[in-house]
Write a structure and sequence with these properties.
alpha/beta; six-stranded mixed sheet
Length: 801
């Protein structure tokens, strides 16, 4: 009797498993976090906000998500762990209640020239299977429709070891879908030889004009000079026909240079392998400039840019080949696949339909599957990664998003909000780092970090509901309902750039005049043709009209932990020269990547101990105490400070230090002024680039480009990654650029920037083939009064008109 009573009493109370409804974080100290302790509700949508650099990513990505991934990796065997990235345990005392984390970040897609939207989402793989089953004429297995698979044929003798060994003649063939002319790239390149070398000089005289090819370079110039195949002292224009053939086209050949075996290869195949096999967008700026000068890319005449062999293009389903299917806008392709009814491939069709419908649902129906993945913006890349999670059956998972509304028009933000809520309603925990008030407003729980950025941030200023945030006195709370007012008067243009008959991508023979000497905003829904107009048609026009264009795209800045704001902006050069001049020594001593590096840690400041499949351990170098320089270098001073103390300064401190007195260095002071202008006064000069937030990187890039000479500035979404308070500062910077006589053209979705513009060009009305037209041009006030476009209606609602 008592046992039964005990059982009933136990069952009436809460189950022990139901007590884990919180993710608990105690004592988080990653990057700039200052002993942060918070509790996050599971199966709810939590938005993390705060000024750029306040510690949002440090808490969400580098603490919660990183520890979840590390714990999952530890469940695998030591053998498997050896192939996985080794993650160190985050700097945190307690992390409790974690679930599996799926991270959807803004990292650009791999920019390989063979990578397309179809290959990264598996849609191409399903299409290939579909055509291998239903395509007529039938040409082979799925590989026969793949532009990354070449056709192979071989014949010869093979030895069969069965009973008495005997040689048997055998043939082997594999049908691939790769176009043999362009090797599946869709374009063929023609190289301008005059950009590779000066034919009036000999190799020994430094004939090569290729970036990075120095006369003492062992792997490049010296292979040609000392191969024995060419005369290094003869001017290239005097080479015989055979020498020219060897110089430009020779097949890879083993040669000895100073007793070392090296491979000699003709100049053209070598250039193709080292520069042209990589996506142009992924190259460093000076290499990209060289490739654009030296190489002309034209559509492959054999496959007409489809990348596919003739056989793959000839096989069709209902009159459509796989090349036609990949070139279709995805919304049209989804409709075509929806019309196929073949019971033998029903599960495949259902899966393909779901993937294509997900594209449309997430607002990417205007893309095509053959679009190179390297050309997607950060926001588009993030949404493409979301595709695979939309129909997932997983629940009780933690989804972590990094500014999912980046690059979205206000009209598209509502759609993204619905997707986030759908993931939550399936029983998942959704953590979002976000600045847009429209997305913060749908949160169940808000965590506001700050109060400032960098060392002035790293604490939780507010935790609770959206209503509580509005009433709170935090920076985010105060700016939450900020609305930029329309200008009472707009600037008068000083001229105009005429664009006539623009047809890049989806533009439909667009004629538009872009005013000069004012702030012009080009807007429209995602995929309406804004970037096509600005990047495809403007640079040539503006370059000819106004003495050069400074284009600041969305590409991420690259850098290792050795890179910092001082090296990236070129600030370290004048600082090193000033130190060298004051102390009568070489400038190279004041670089931690050169002669001045601490010999123990090689100028990194920490020593890494590799523990195989366990996380490596980084310990501060005992010899230089993390300062990165050898002791003798730190004996040299400028204005009473050594080089490590200067690199530890913030931009604001350094601006004052180099502005006057003994340390006065005008070249350094100018660069520091630009960094302060973009709101990075709090950054320390020696902070590794790997620790900067997305918004900080965006502004660091802008500060660097501001040094370039040009009359027209093209900015692609400069407010990406910026907090509401930082946007205000960005508008001030754009005004200063225009007032100094520059023309500023901005591709932007942020309503505050639209309201602040002198002239707006709105593209649309829809995306893809529903866009590509100018639907409005005029002042922001006229756009609000007109309200005939999506942008006009959203801007009117924003300014409260």
């Amino acid at each position: 009797m008592s046992m039964a009573t005990g059982t009933n009493a136990q069952s009436s109370g809460p189950h022990a498993a139901d007590s884990h409804d919180l993710i608990r974080v105690h004592g988080a100290r990653e990057n700039n976090l200052k002993d942060v302790s918070i509790e996050l509700p599971k199966r709810r949508l939590t938005v993390f906000t705060g000024v750029s650099g306040s510690g949002k990513s440090s808490l969400v990505f580098h603490t919660i998500a990183a520890e979840s991934q590390r714990l999952i990796n530890e469940t695998y065997s030591a053998f498997v762990q050896g192939f996985l990235p080794t993650l160190a345990r985050p700097e945190v005392d307690v992390l409790d209640g974690l679930t599996t984390a799926i991270i959807v970040d803004q990292q650009r897609m791999g920019a390989d020239s063979r990578s397309t939207v179809g290959t990264v989402t598996d849609a191409n793989a399903m299409l290939r299977i579909l055509f291998s089953r239903l395509g007529t004429p039938h040409i082979g297995p799925p590989g026969a429709y793949a532009f990354n698979v070449p056709s192979v044929r071989a014949s010869g003798a093979i030895t069969v070891e069965r009973g008495a060994k005997k040689a048997v003649k055998a043939t082997f063939s594999r049908t691939g879908g790769m176009c043999p002319r362009c090797e599946g790239r869709g374009t063929v390149s023609d190289i301008d030889l005059s950009q590779l070398y000066d034919d009036s000089k000999s190799i020994a005289e430094g004939a090569f004009t290729i970036p990075g090819w120095k006369s003492d370079s062992f792997w490049t110039v010296r292979v040609y000079a000392e191969s024995g195949l060419l005369d290094p002292d003869k001017p290239i224009r005097k080479f015989t026909k055979k020498e020219m053939q060897d110089f430009l086209y020779r097949e890879p050949t083993k040669v000895k240079v100073e007793g070392v075996n090296l491979t000699y290869e003709g100049l053209i195949p070598k250039i193709q392998k080292s520069f042209l096999s990589k996506d142009k967008e992924a190259l460093q700026p000076h290499i990209r400039a060289f490739v654009e000068r030296a190489v002309t890319f034209t559509t492959c005449p054999e496959c007409d840019g489809t990348r596919l062999s003739e056989g793959a293009r000839s096989s069709k389903i209902k009159g459509i080949s796989i090349a036609d299917a990949c070139a279709m806008q995805i919304s049209d392709l989804a409709a075509w696949v929806g019309g196929l009814d073949e019971p033998s491939v029903a599960p495949l069709l259902a899966s393909l339909r779901h993937t294509l419908d997900s594209f449309v649902e997430i607002g990417l129906g205007y893309l095509s599957l053959d679009r190179p993945s390297g050309t997607l913006s950060g926001g588009e890349a993030q949404r493409v990664k979301m595709i695979r999670h939309l129909g997932s059956s997983l629940t009780d998972t933690t989804y972590v998003f990094d500014e999912p509304t980046t690059g979205l028009h206000p009209h598209d933000i509502q759609r993204m909000n619905d997707l986030l809520l759908r993931l939550r309603d399936k029983g998942n925990t959704v953590l979002v780092v976000e600045h847009k008030p429209e997305t913060i407003a749908i949160a169940d729980h808000v965590v506001d970090l700050g109060p400032g950025a960098g060392a002035a941030g790293g604490t939780v200023c507010f935790e609770g509901t959206v209503e509580g945030l509005r009433a709170g006195g935090t920076v985010t709370g105060r700016h939450f309902d900020d609305r930029a007012a329309l200008k009472e008067s707009v600037r008068k243009p000083t001229g105009a750039l005429e664009i006539r008959g623009a047809t890049t991508h989806n533009l439909r023979d667009v004629d538009v005049d872009i005013p000069l000497g004012v702030l012009t905003v080009v807007t429209g829904v995602a995929g309406s043709g804004k970037s096509s107009l600005v990047h495809g048609s403007l640079p040539g026009q503006a370059g000819a009209a106004d003495g050069g264009v400074v284009a600041v795209g969305q590409g991420p800045i690259r850098g290792s932990r050795r890179s910092n704001p001082a090296t990236y902006t070129g600030l370290l050069d004048p600082i090193r020269k000033a130190f060298a001049k004051a102390n009568g020594v070489k400038p190279a001593l004041f670089s931690a990547n050169s002669e001045g590096a601490c010999p123990t840690c090689n100028g990194v400041g920490v020593l890494y101990t590799d523990l195989a499949m366990m996380a490596g351990v980084a310990t501060p170098c005992e010899d230089c105490e993390g300062k990165r320089f050898q002791a003798s270098v730190l004996d040299h001073h400028l204005g009473g400070r050594d080089i490590s103390e200067v690199l530890a300064m913030s931009v604001t401190e350094a601006e004052e230090f180099f502005g006057s007195g003994e340390a006065r260095t005008p070249a350094a002071h100018r660069i520091l002024g630009r960094l302060a202008d973009v709101g990075l006064g709090y950054l320390s000069l020696g902070q590794p680039l790997t620790t900067l937030s997305g918004g900080e990187r965006q502004r660091l890039k802008l500060a660097t480009h501001m040094a370039e000479k040009g009359g027209v500035y093209l900015l692609d979404e400069p407010t990406a990654g910026l907090h509401l308070a930082d946007v205000e500062q960005m508008l001030g910077l754009l005004d200063r650029l225009v007032d100094s006589g520059k023309s500023v053209i901005v591709v932007e979705h942020h309503q505050a920037v639209m309201a602040h513009a002198d002239w707006i060009i709105d593209l649309g009305p829809g995306a893809g083939h529903d866009g590509g037209q100018v639907v409005f041009e005029g002042t922001p006030a006229d756009l609000v009064a007109d309200r005939s476009t999506l942008t006009g209606r959203h801007l009117a609602a924003y300014v409260g008109a």
